[in-house]
Amino acid sequence: MKALYFKEFGTSDVLQYGIVGDPVIGKMDLLVETHYIGLNFADIYRRRGTYHLEPHTPYINGYEGVGKIIAVGGGISAEQIGRTVLFVDVPFANAEHVRVPQDHAIYLPPELDEKLAVTIGLQGLTADFLAHDIGKNKAGAKVLVTGISGGVGQILAQMLTADGIEVFGMASSAEKRELAIQRGAREVFNSRENDWVEAHAGTFATVYDGVGVTLPQSLELIGHRGKVVFFGMAGGNPPAIDLVPLLAQSKSILTGDLWDYLTSFSERKHRSQRLFRYFLKQQITVSEPTIFPLAEGKAAHEFLESGKNIGKVLLQP
Ligand SMILES: NC(=O)c1ccc[n+]([C@@H]2O[C@H](COP(=O)([O-])OP(=O)(O)OC[C@H]3O[C@@H](n4cnc5c(N)ncnc54)[C@H](OP(=O)(O)O)[C@@H]3O)[C@@H](O)[C@H]2O)c1
C-alpha cells in the first residue's frame, strides 16, 4: 500500500510518500480502506518530534480517517465487510489501509455523509468533551473561544450557542471573524491586536484556549471564579504561570486530552452520537474541508501550519 511517512523529525521536508508494508490485523481488528484522512495539529507536533507517538519504522502519521471495512479478524463477523467506519484515535492513518481495533471504530448513522463525518470527527469530539466534560457552562454564561474559526473552534462555538451559552471569539482575519458572527457568535475580537483586552478583562466566565501562547491573556479575561480551559498550543507553548495571583481571585486552569475520554467502544459511541445529533438537527454547520491528495501531504502540512485554513484539512488516498 502507499502511505505518507517520515524517518526523522523536522519540517515538512521530512515527509515522503511511497510504498510501505500492509498492516497485519489481529483477531478483533478491522482492515479499513481509507477514503478520507483527517490532518490535525497533533500530526504537526508529532512530525516536529514534540508529541507522543507510537513506535513504527518508517513512522506513519495520522490518527483519524473514514473508510470501508475490507477485511476482519477471526473474532469478528464477516458481515461487517463493506460497512463504513470513522476512527479518530488509531495510529498510522496516513495510508491506504489502516488496522482499526474494532472497539475504536465509530459506526456512522446512515443519514451522515462520510466526508462530513471525518470533517467533524476528532475536532467535533474534542469540542464535545471540552463543552460537556470540562467547561460545563450553564445556559446564559458568557464565554470566549480562541481560534473561533478553526476546526475545533467552529464546532465548539456553535455547540455552546445551541446549549444556550453566550459565545464570543477571537480570530485573526476579517473573513474569519465574519464567519464566526454568521454562525452565532456575539462579537469576535482581532486575535492579532490587544487594544480590546483591557475593556473586556474580568468579564468572561470561561475562556476556551487552544492557541496556548495566549494563556496569560485568557487568565486576564476571566472574572473571579472563572476558568480557562487550556486545550492546545496552535500558536506556541504557553509561558509558565504563577498560580499564587490566581488563588486570590479563585481563577482556575483546566486542561484535557480527548484520548482520556475515548476509553471504550461505548464511550466512543455515546460521545459521537451526542456530537452527530447537533449536525442531524442542523444546529451546527462547518466550512467545506480543504482536500489534498495523500501524495501531497507536505503541502497539506504547510497549509495547516500557515494558519490560513478555515476549518478542516483532509488527505485523500
Ligand atoms: N486537547 C485535545 O484533546 C485536543 C484535540 C484536538 C485538537 N486540540 C487542539 O486544539 C487546537 C485547535 O485545533 P484545530 O484542529 O481546530 O486547528 P485549526 O483548525 O488549525 O485551528 C487553530 C486556530 O488557531 C489559531 N492560531 C493562532 N495562532 C496560530 C498560529 N501561530 N498558527 C496556526 N494557528 C494559529 C488560528 O486562528 P486565527 O488565525 O484566527 O488566530 C486557527 O484557526 C490545537 O491547539 C490542537 O492541538 C486539542
Written overview of the protein:
With 317 residues, the chain is of the alpha/beta class. The chain has nine helices and 16 strands. It has helices at residues 41-48, 114-135, 151-162, 174-182, 197-200, 215-221, 243-248, 265-280, 297-306, and strands at residues 2-6, 16-19, 29-39, 59-60, 64-72, 84-87, 97-101, 106-107, 142-145, 166-171, 187-190, 204-209, 222-230, 252-255, 290-293, 313-316. Strands 3, 5, 6, 7, 8, 15 and 16 form a seven-stranded mixed sheet that branches. The protein has a six-stranded parallel sheet with strand order 11-10-9-12-13-14. A three-stranded antiparallel sheet has the order 2-1-4, with no helix packed on it. Strand 12 (204-209), helix 6 and strand 13 (222-230) form a beta-alpha-beta unit. Helix 2 packs across helix 3 and helix 2 crosses helix 8 (265-280). It is globular, with a radius of gyration of 20 Å. The protein starts with a strand and ends with a strand. The mean pLDDT is 96. The structure holds NADP nicotinamide-adenine-dinucleotide phosphate. NADP nicotinamide-adenine-dinucleotide phosphate (NAP) binds at residues 40-42, 122-123, 126, 147, 149-153, 171-172, 176, 191, 210-211, 231-235, 256-258, 304, 307, 309. Residues 40-42, 122-123, 126, 147, 149-153, 171-172, 176, 191, 210-211, 231-235, 256-258, 304, 307, 309 line the site of NADP nicotinamide-adenine-dinucleotide phosphate.
